[in-house]
Design a protein that fits this description.
This protein is of the alpha+beta class. It has 14 helices and 5 strands. It has a 5-stranded mixed beta sheet with strand order 1-2-3-5-4.
Length: 388
């Protein structure tokens, strides 16, 4: 696996651990360093004028803070300790700077620590940052105390807000991954279940007539080969979409995907089992939104698969696709019978659930169940405007 294919996984894992990317870490360093130099550095130069040796020492301490911020994303706890200690030293040298301004770098470190580390760690850091509060009160009275405590608490709160935002982002990413896995599972199920059902029936038919009618057995074996090749082609298309380094290859070698335009091919695979399949179209299916086109095809495919696998005594099935106005209607009816002493519950079984979910995802609806006069019907309505 090359480096490009690993990058998305590395980014996802880093975000899951609350870490910053190298680019974000550099941007954080430049931003925080500029803030400290612009605010604290300027204050030290203005206030320290005329204080002799204290000015160069204070400037050196400010530069130490700026350098320490280089490791802010990697080790915020250590950076907080260094910047807080040097900030207190700057304030001790130049009290006119104010305690709040002197520990500006420490407040930035507290914000990052609050955003990237567990809450118990950030709460401990917040408590440590509040320890100099009596000194702020002694130097500036109630106003100095209020300003210091307020800025420290705001820095911690900003980090918590960022942490909550990252948690929501990770939750959305996980949900997207789960939904994508479910979509892939549905696609694989649709491809494999239908083809395997046809292949099983064909294999059984070939075995029955292998000795007496070898030509018919040969036709059944050819149908099995054709179905297997078709399924492999669809699986390749499906898997190729998830190869990050094969976009150009997919564009060059892409074959026509499942759509209502290939409905006759789908019906032919079922006819090869001996089932009579009638296909009726009303209206133009060209230009339908891809999502609706695929959903309609998969619903027909799953309904035919269910007929092959579960319809008792069925030897005929009718497929009707009607495009009228802003709606696509799909109806699949077979002439099977409900098993004696049993009943078919609409919506029961993985196949029916998958069909209903496909219809729901494009804003449509689907009903399925036995007909009063015998047979089983699957009827779906898929709105075109909403899906597009």
């Amino acid at each position: 696996m090359d480096r490009r294919s690993r990058e998305p996984d590395d980014v996802f894992a880093r975000e899951a651990r609350g870490e910053l990317s190298p680019r974000a870490a550099r941007a954080l360093w430049w931003g925080s360093a500029g803030l400290v130099l612009g605010v604290l550095g300027t204050s030290v130069l203005v206030v320290g004028a005329g204080h002799g040796w204290r000015l160069p020492v204070a400037v050196a301490l400010v530069l130490v803070q700026v350098c320490a911020l280089r490791w802010l994303a990697r080790a915020p706890v250590a950076v907080l300790a260094v910047t807080a200690a040097t900030g207190l030293a700057v304030w001790a040298l130049l009290p006119a700077v104010t305690l709040t301004g002197a520990v500006l770098a420490a407040q930035v470190a507290l914000c990052v620590l609050s955003a990237t580390r567990p809450r118990r760690v950030s709460v401990g850091a917040l408590a440590a940052m509040c320890l100099p509060a009596p000194s702020a009160f002694a130097a500036g009275g109630p106003a100095g105390l209020a300003v210091y405590v307020l800025t420290v608490v705001l820095a911690w709160t900003a980090g918590q807000w960022r942490r909550a935002q990252q948690a929501r982002t990770r939750a959305e990413m996980r949900r997207a991954v789960v939904e994508e896995r479910a979509r892939i599972a549905r696609e694989v199920h649709d491809v494999v279940a239908h083809t395997l059902s046809v292949m099983v029936i064909q294999a059984g038919a070939a075995d029955d007539v292998f000795t007496q009618q070898p030509e018919q057995a040969r036709q059944a074996l050819q149908a099995i080969e054709t179905g297997a090749r078709s399924a492999l082609g669809e699986l390749r298309l499906l898997l190729r979409a998830f190869r990050p380094d094969a976009e150009e290859e997919a564009a060059e070698q892409r074959e026509p995907g499942p759509s209502l335009a290939r409905l006759d091919e789908l019906a032919d695979t079922v006819r090869a089992t001996g089932m009579t399949v009638h296909v009726h179209r009303e209206g133009a299916t060209d230009g339908l939104p891809a999502a609706v086109d695929l959903a309609a095809y998969r619903i027909v495919q799953e309904a035919l698969t269910n007929t092959l696998r579960h319809a008792v005594g069925a030897d005929e099935v009718s497929v009707r696709v009607t495009v009228e106005g802003e709606c696509v209607k799909v109806t699949v009816v077979d002439n099977g019978r409900t098993p004696q002493g049993g009943s078919v519950v609409a919506g029961a079984g993985r196949g029916l659930v998958g069909m209903k979910e496909r219809a729901r995802l494009v804003g449509g609806s689907l009903r399925a169940g036995p007909l009063p006069g015998g047979g089983f019907e699957v009827a779906a309505q898929l709105p075109v405007e909403r899906a597009s």
